Amino acid sequence: MCDLFTLSAGKNFSAPKSLPLFAVRASNNVDGWGIGYYKNHRAFVEKSADRAYLPGQLHDSFQRIARVVSSRIIICHLRMRSSGPIDECHAHPFVLNFAHCDWIFAHNGRAVSIESYRSSGSIIEEAVSDSARAFEYLRDHLLAAASTAAGISPLFERLYEATGAMIHEYPGKYNYLLTNGWCLFAFTNHRQFMVLRESAHLEDGLLLTTVGKGLSNEQWLRIASPGNARGLLLAIAGTDIILREPLR
Fold it and tell me: Does the pTM of the predicted model rise above 0.90?
């Protein structure tokens, strides 16, 4: 199954250490890769349908981007296809513009039922997958929410409600990362997140991945959905997890 990685920091960072390690430790994902980041408040995504890592060798473009990208939030996805064809269009992350921001979304899991969802708004036309439809679903529900208050807490509440509604209407396995460039949200209902702050060997920001045991021989914190919950939603600002709520 696909794997996720993100770096969140209070200032722009590159990830020349952690991104290559992520590619190596999640090298069983062979169906493409993508790296999303921000530059001047605009989202950019570099994708490929190729493997990020072959024994002893990183993909040239993956290695270059890991070295030169500079962003407060970086999201990387290594794909193991569960729906949709193997091509660049179906590699994650995806980008949608709404609520005056570019949003980046990456997902792993399997939710066949949500492939039937049809948004009344703009869609990710090139992608026929549960991940693309999940992103559109969350976008639609965030825009339809009654609250218009700004800030991370109101946004967290709306996303919490949207995610709960999505799982109720379209049951499945969901792990996602979602960001608008200034805050980051992470949800899981079937796998763990491994989290490390202020690494002595990697970058200084907050590092989060789905790869078991993390990316270095340090004390990574395991975060998972409680057994009596339907999932767990996190809100991250800079290097801090500021909100954490089980989905009931």
Answer: yes
CB atoms < 10 A from the CB of 85, how many? Answer: 12
- Amino acid identity for residue 89 in this structure: C
User: In 3-state terms, what secondary structure has residue 119?
Assistant: coil
Q: What span, in angstroms and rounded, lies between the C-alpha atoms of 145 and 98?
A: 13
pLDDT, mean of residues 141-161: 85
Q: How many C-alpha atoms does 236 have within 13 Å on its Cβ side?
A: 28
Among residues 209, 197, 188, which one has the least CA distance to residue 242? Answer: 197
Q: pLDDT per residue over 157-182, tens digit each?
A: 999 999 999 999 999 999 999 999 99
Six-digit token string for 82: 């569960």
Cβ neighbours around 168 below 10 Å, total: 9
Of 10-14, 63-67, 144-148, least confident by mean pLDDT is 144-148
User: C-alpha angle 79/84/125, rounded to 5°?
Assistant: 105
Q: What is the rounded distance in angstroms from the CA atom of residue 79 to the CA atom of residue 49?
A: 9
